[in-house]
Amino acid sequence: SVRVNGFVCKNPMEVNADDFFKAAALDKPRVTNKVGSNVTLINVMQIAGLNTLGISIARIDYAPLGQNPPHTHPRATEILTVLEGTLYVGFVTSNQPAPNRNKFLSKVLNKGDVFVFPVGLIHFQFNPNPHKPAVAIAALSSQNPGAITIANAVFGSDPQISDDVLAKAFQVEKNTIDWLQAQFWENNHN
Amino acid sequence: SVRVNGFVCKNPMEVNADDFFKAAALDKPRVTNKVGSNVTLINVMQIAGLNTLGISIARIDYAPLGQNPPHTHPRATEILTVLEGTLYVGFVTSNQPAPNRNKFLSKVLNKGDVFVFPVGLIHFQFNPNPHKPAVAIAALSSQNPGAITIANAVFGSDPQISDDVLAKAFQVEKNTIDWLQAQFWENNHN
Amino acid sequence: SVRVNGFVCKNPMEVNADDFFKAAALDKPRVTNKVGSNVTLINVMQIAGLNTLGISIARIDYAPLGQNPPHTHPRATEILTVLEGTLYVGFVTSNQPAPNRNKFLSKVLNKGDVFVFPVGLIHFQFNPNPHKPAVAIAALSSQNPGAITIANAVFGSDPQISDDVLAKAFQVEKNTIDWLQAQFWENNHN
Amino acid sequence: SVRVNGFVCKNPMEVNADDFFKAAALDKPRVTNKVGSNVTLINVMQIAGLNTLGISIARIDYAPLGQNPPHTHPRATEILTVLEGTLYVGFVTSNQPAPNRNKFLSKVLNKGDVFVFPVGLIHFQFNPNPHKPAVAIAALSSQNPGAITIANAVFGSDPQISDDVLAKAFQVEKNTIDWLQAQFWENNHN
Amino acid sequence: SVRVNGFVCKNPMEVNADDFFKAAALDKPRVTNKVGSNVTLINVMQIAGLNTLGISIARIDYAPLGQNPPHTHPRATEILTVLEGTLYVGFVTSNQPAPNRNKFLSKVLNKGDVFVFPVGLIHFQFNPNPHKPAVAIAALSSQNPGAITIANAVFGSDPQISDDVLAKAFQVEKNTIDWLQAQFWENNHN
Amino acid sequence: SVRVNGFVCKNPMEVNADDFFKAAALDKPRVTNKVGSNVTLINVMQIAGLNTLGISIARIDYAPLGQNPPHTHPRATEILTVLEGTLYVGFVTSNQPAPNRNKFLSKVLNKGDVFVFPVGLIHFQFNPNPHKPAVAIAALSSQNPGAITIANAVFGSDPQISDDVLAKAFQVEKNTIDWLQAQFWENNHN
């Protein structure tokens, strides 16, 4: 079979609407994880017809006080709108230009608000409401945006990064790093 | 002021969260037009921080039996999910490869379903329910995707295209073209 | 065999000049179709060496009063020059920015004139001379630009688009749509 | 005024068909230069509407035994078709992969033949007919492809490249280089 | 003055070799910071002629036991070679595909070894030698790659990210976050 | 096996650090060729993990009075820094804009200086020191930049370019061309 971009490129004679479709993908609330969120991403793995087309879409569920923890998308900008509840969101700029390094830009979003997380920057969403869940729809400018949850990648990698390196990088004792590396770092992107 | 891509590139010292934010953009039902729809697009015109980032997002309202009529986006693929109601959607492939020309791929979408309209192809959404409105969220792979509503561009251009040309192209009498060109072609992208 | 972009990528040891060549491709007048034109496109299907190189070339023959009817190229800008005869050409802009929607920009071209049709916009060429044919050379900024003839895609798709949808979109009676859908929509890109 | 890509981006309200048009650009034979050719390129300098659109077109006139001497386009692939006469054309591949270095791929083209010169490779066209001129239309995959005539750039630069360097690079005596540098290297791209 | 991409595009008549040159940029050892490194990046800010050209180069100095701490480049892949000493380097993959999440790929590099850090992934270099400094040359696939030092962006942003959010994200007590946020997070990219 | 871009795309489960690594690649002086240089390029052929990542790195050795002769990279900009010795470097601009054609921009580089050779332009480096070798590190903005050594491609192609064509192009007698074509044109990119 012919592949483009690593994915099967179906014979045009056999392409049909199902190649551009995913049923019941984003309507249902989902169980949230330890940090209180669950990202349901529809990308080229779920819809083969997205291959080469540069976009994907996600539903994000947030438990009360839940968060989609600090993470980056190495290959996509994200645009998000709130469907239900309230979200406190933000991103941190890079180390340039001096002296304007690592600015934290944040906003409280209500239903219908739209916010943009530029490609590659560390960002998060947090549901500040202790009683009600929140729901957002997010779109990403890649068929396969990738996600790097900062804590998971730094402290939960397999194998672990040397605790000497991390202790110095994070200015803490090695046993703090060891403790962090011993935790369970649950993925919230399913 | 510095411009990138034709848009003002704000001094990094003065950038703030509002440059990546649009309040109350997509939560409210909107009055639909003559064909029974209303597209509320949040692109680089509404959120300056989208400049160079390659994505935008829209809410589409559909009246009962309303439609977002056949149109193309010259610079974007669209991915859509239904928030409320039901939509009959589809797109037509190009004239290649023979003999597989102009295939119409369609689907009935319910709440939570996701569908993809590849860049540049003619597509539409129609709300088949005679009693209830429908709502969708769509994302587009461009900060400024553009929209060409086929009927409006062909029969409602300013000035009008020669009726000689259109009569032959559409295999109808010139007075049919003249009648079509005399109609009011309302835009549903606001 | 290795494929790049879905096309065979020949072993460099075996590449030769024929991989970049097509004989007698664009010199001969060709029989025009029902709307009075015939597009002879030399793209990556005809010249394998064009793969990844982003360009193609075409000869277009126009019968007296013939036209290359309103169409778009979803992946290419077109630049055209007239070799013989006269052409009335034009394109319609998208629905942005208001109030400048759907402007029709047209020109009468004589031998040696050059005109540009920007990517994704609806455009056509018409030979206004009732006695003489016309010929043009066009180049397109893609190895596989695609073509969507508006009337064919809207009224001649397989299967047909619902006449309910089209009647409302084009502001005509359903039986007008049914009549249009019953016509033969001949392709002029061979 | 707003600029995109270094070129003025006209107010959409004021754009008209002339921004996409160049009259009488490619129909007339032109006087050829010392090497027997003349390239008439219509790019973004001549048609402002080409800005960002990635294509340009040229007419090339060849005197009997004239040539468009070995050159490269640093930003474009070229596709060429012969309108009149005969051309001997070719390009040389790069130094990879060994042992397949610097292969010369050539072809004699007659009217209507099409040939492709891949981006950045050294290529030429030569009219082998001692009595008749030749004419070609070429399209290039850039709004501003650039041209580097090898002999002119190497031996006719301003200021001159050190003759020590060139003598060793071309394995000739320094006085041969000096003689070459003393010649007049006429440009054939106007 | 004309700008392209936000940077001044000099009049071609006035361009000279200095626009493509930076003197004495990468030869001298530099004082390392608190984490024991110093990145000297030559990008479009230092060499204006790099504008639009998609590359930059850096020298990185490492003190004994110094590190270039975990960071990402949102817009560039990095390729690095060791000039002096030894480096323990690595990167962590993203959370896809399951169950292959967050793999840590590492290597000890000696003089002349080459290693690649793919775009957007968290990576670091560490000099394991307690007595000798190390030096590397790195190239990045962007004229302005950006750098996000993870610890600085997460714990040293201005203003600070809510400690509620970070405590949950990093599975630690809020006072640990408060302590981290009270530290001085020194930038090592100058 | 899955291929992307013509190269094997390894199963993510089996990827390891060696896929991003090349040992002892750039530390050792290498024997220089007839023109006195040797380019050791580490590209996607040497490090499979570079596939799609758009960068490569090279060490260049120069004998006393040796040169990396005039050449172009059809797919990459080059940024170079001197590690040892002195280099006289330069590039020639294209034939635009008139009257600013074929400007030669040159510089003498010492250890630690950085210089940029824009994509597709003819450039060289020369070691003016009759006694000492020189060494440089260069990075290129492509995983497979290609190299076209001008003299080799023009006079050493296989088969040879017609001496009629070259004699006219270079304004010399045919026997000069024949003599040049009879030389051995050694490649310095290994």
Automatic annotation (TrEMBL), chains A, B, C, D, E, F:
Binding site for Mn(2+): H71, H73, E78, H123
GO MF entry, a single one: manganese ion binding
Primary site of residence: cytoplasm
One GO term describing the cellular component: apoplast
Start and end residues of each Cupin type-1 domain: 21-178
Catalytic activity: oxalate + O2 + 2 H(+) = H2O2 + 2 CO2
Compartments reported by the entry: Cytoplasm; Secreted, Cell wall; Secreted, Extracellular space, Apoplast
Transmembrane spans: none
Residues the entry annotates as binding oxalate: N68, H73, E78
UniProtKB keywords: Apoplast, Cell wall, Cytoplasm, Disulfide bond, Manganese, Metal-binding, Oxidoreductase, Secreted
Entry function: Produces developmental and stress-related release of hydrogen peroxide in the apoplast. May play an important role in several aspects of plant growth and defense mechanisms.
Protein family: Belongs to the germin family.
Name used for this protein in its record: Germin-like protein
Gene source species: Aegilops tauschii subsp. strangulata
